[in-house]
Write a sequence for this structure.
């Protein structure tokens, strides 16, 4: 069965510092995609970054980078130079190519608080 | 850039009523997904459509049905509403020609009284 685990219900970080949000996953599929989404208090789901299972390089998007360790089945999100606007819920998600379906499963989320 | 459009943004219904949520995917996206997010929970996958055919099914109650139309917009029909159906309903779309990142709409917040 596929599963996403985010073990940090909440995290605090000082403004301008870097923070790592943990994500581990479990799948028996060889081909899969890993995603991070940000959900501010307003409710929308904002796509941040994607990592494919066959990508050898870690994905980066501006201040976001994904620390992909395939053998450990982890896909941690690193946010550099935190900003007050980064305070939000962050979801790690996985899409696996199982029987042609493309559903995505989400972890429970990590709520990030950025302190001034 | 165009985003996923959902309507209505907010909806209040009473128990046992019906509701229809609409989703307009990003242009040229051929796949639509529906998710339900309860208060303080992660999004739960309900159902998806690819090229107007159902492609995957999650934890969608039998009281709910959905379809994708020829213009790729999708509708989620919910009948015999229950209090527990109160949630944020997201539609997402993706294209199978790229990395299949799902882009989410703003959501429809449904409150069942």
């Amino acid at each position: 069965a596929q599963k996403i685990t985010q073990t940090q219900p909440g995290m605090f970080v000082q403004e301008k510092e870097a923070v790592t949000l943990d994500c581990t996953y479990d799948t028996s599929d060889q081909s899969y995609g890993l995603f991070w989404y940000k959900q501010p208090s307003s409710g929308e789901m904002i796509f941040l970054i994607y990592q494919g299972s066959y990508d050898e390089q870690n994905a980066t998007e501006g201040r976001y980078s994904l620390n992909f360790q395939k053998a450990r089945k982890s896909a941690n999100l690193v946010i550099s130079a935190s900003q007050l606007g980064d305070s939000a819920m962050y979801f790690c998600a996985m899409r696996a190519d199982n029987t042609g379906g493309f559903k995505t499963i989400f972890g429970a989320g990590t709520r990030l608080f950025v302190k001034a | 850039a165009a985003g996923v459009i959902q309507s209505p943004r907010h909806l209040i219904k009473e128990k046992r009523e019906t509701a229809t949520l609409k989703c307009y995917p990003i242009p040229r996206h051929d796949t639509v997904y529906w998710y339900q997010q309860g208060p303080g929970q992660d999004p739960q996958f309900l159902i998806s459509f690819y090229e107007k055919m159902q492609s995957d099914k999650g934890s969608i109650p039998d009281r709910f049905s959905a379809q994708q139309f020829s213009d790729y917009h999708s509708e989620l029909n919910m009948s015999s509403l229950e209090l527990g159906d109160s949630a944020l309903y997201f539609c997402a779309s993706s294209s199978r020609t790229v990395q299949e990142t799902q882009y989410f709409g703003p959501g429809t917040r449904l409150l069942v009284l």
About this structure: Residues 16 and 81 of chain A are 4 Å apart (CA to CA). Chain A is about 0% helix and 55% strand. The mean pLDDT of chain A is 92. The radius of gyration of chain A is 14 Å.
